[in-house]
Amino acid sequence: MERISKRNSDDLKCVFICDFYKTDLNNKGGAENNDSVLISLLEKYGFEVEKKYSKDISPQFIEQNKDKKFIIGNFVQFTEAAKQSISDKHYIIYEHDHKYLRTRDPSKFLDFLAPEDQIINRDFYKNSKCVICLSNSQIESIKKNLKISNAESIGCSLWSSEKLDFISDICDTEKTKEYCVVNSQNPTKGTKLAEDFCHRSKCEYDLIESSDEQKFLKTLATYEKLVYIPTVLESLCRLVVEAKMLNCKVITKTQMLGASSQPWWKLNGKELIGAIRAQQDTAFNIFLKHLL
Question: What is the phi/psi pair of residue 231, to 5°?
Answer without folding.
Answer: -100, 0
